[in-house]
């Protein structure tokens, strides 16, 4: 197999894919295989993720190097100066006082649009949001019960008071997410990363957090004050 064909295959693309397709495929695979998403207590998967990330990095760089580079534009000679046109007669000037009496239209104000729509209270019951990028979104009070959020990227997502009853959050990235008062009962949290997340007052009763007495949820720096833990106890 030719080296370039192998690079396309690594990124899951057909030969001749555009630079945009190469970059998007790289982002998707880097999101899935980033070592931070793999449990630290699984060295075999950690090693595999690091090797996979190195492989897709090399494939992307090699394919990007094939893209045609923009050619510099040769400088054009400056045009010969033209003679200045004869001055045209000027209309009579309006007295300054007339401008003072003239009403001026109000200037419109420019409002920068929000990069993401406000999803407060949105209903995503049973929705398939697997691998979706919801980072930075406002999903406070949203209904995500039974939703599939596996491998979703939810960095700094506002989920205050959201309903995630029986939601599938397998390997979801919830870094620094706001989950205050969220309903996470019976949710699947195996492999999820909740590092730095705010879980104050959240209800996690019956949530799946591991197997065989092993916790498989990353919660480094998470705030759990007042949260109801999977076994029904309240975190002090």
From TrEMBL:
Gene3D superfamilies, sorted: DnaJ domain, E3 ubiquitin-protein ligase SopA
Lineage: superkingdom? Bacteria
- Pro residues bias locations: 74-94
**Record domain J: where:** 6-78
SMART domains membership: DnaJ
Q: Name one Pfam family in it.
A: Pentapeptide
Region entry Disordered, spans: 60-130
This protein is called Pentapeptide repeat-containing protein
**What organism is this sequence from?**
Geitlerinema calcuttense NRMC-F 0142
